Amino acid sequence: MGSLSLIVGGIAMAAMLMSQPCAAQTYPSKPIRIVVPFVAGGSSDIVARSVAARMQTTIGQNVVVENRPGANGAIAAEFVMRSPPDGYTIMVGSIGTFAINSALYPKLPYDPLKDLEPLTLAVTTPNVLVANTKFPASSVKELIAYARKNPGKLTYASSGTGSSDHLSAELFKLQTGTFGVHIPYRGGAAAMADLMGGNVDVSFQNLGAAMPHIKSGRLKALAVTSEARRSQLPETPTMIEQGVPGFVVTSWQAFMGPKGMPRDVVARLSSELVAALNSAEVRTRFGQQGFDIVADKPESFADFQRKEIARWREVVQKKGLTPE
After folding, report:
1. Helix axes 43-59, 263-277, angle to 10 degrees
2. Surface-to-core class of residue 193, CB atoms within 10 Å of its CB (0-12 exposed, 13-18 middle, 19+ buried)
3. How far apart are CA 238 and CA 222, in angstroms?
4. What distance in Å separates the CA atoms of residue 315 and residue 317, rounded to the nearest whole number?
5. Which of 97, 108, 214, 236 could cysteine-pair with 73, CB 3.0–4.6 Å?
6. Is the overall model pTM greater than 0.85, yes or no?
7. Are strands 292-293 and 116-132 parallel, antiparallel or unpaired?
């Protein structure tokens, strides 16, 4: 009976151990990848790298950033959508990737609501209308006058068709009765590089990404798209102040993963992302660049995202905008 008791006891112990999560398998047990749908240097990239650097000091694993630009985020979003829903591949994307695309593209290869899992709304930021330093206009009034005097000559860059900076320009043209040639790029950094090189005239770029180039004097700021002036650019008036009523556009960056991730993994990831966003060093850096940190829960972001998709679908339909 003694031997039998030992055998039974051993089986019971083994069953108990098997029912408990193995330490080696506890999430995360390997590096986490954050996919960025644009080239390095833009707002999505800045958010991803800042959060990754902070997050890996607390999560116990490396957090690597991978840029997969193209199609205003659709290439990266489809890649993440098709990745295993295990929490090791997530992405940070913009208002274009997670909201405007679904309103603008009738055959989008992913559905931001059905195919991706909300983690947190990271930051919001207004856009800023910037021009290359050789462009003759230094205010919205002068820009409108230039566009009307030189029909078809004005060029404006965007981080991609369907991005917030693209739609900001479309709204500007509609509200001011002006025309400009749209030059889409594979991200805000690429757009600003050509802008600083004098190859395009103007662009509506996220305040956070454009700030360093404005401060260095490589770009000049004409207006911000917020309701009030920003502390980072106190001398730069709003679009409303310069005679474009109701012109308010707020861009945002958020984290999502593949649909179907385990709820405990979603909770852990969301918690780690929120903690990284609220850390002192990230808050300081983002504040200097014009980002307003949100860092909410997945449920709050999901509700916000649904409202944003509905809002931009209405704008696209009313303005008759189509992919270029």
Report:
1. 110
2. middle
3. 9
4. 5
5. 97
6. no
7. antiparallel
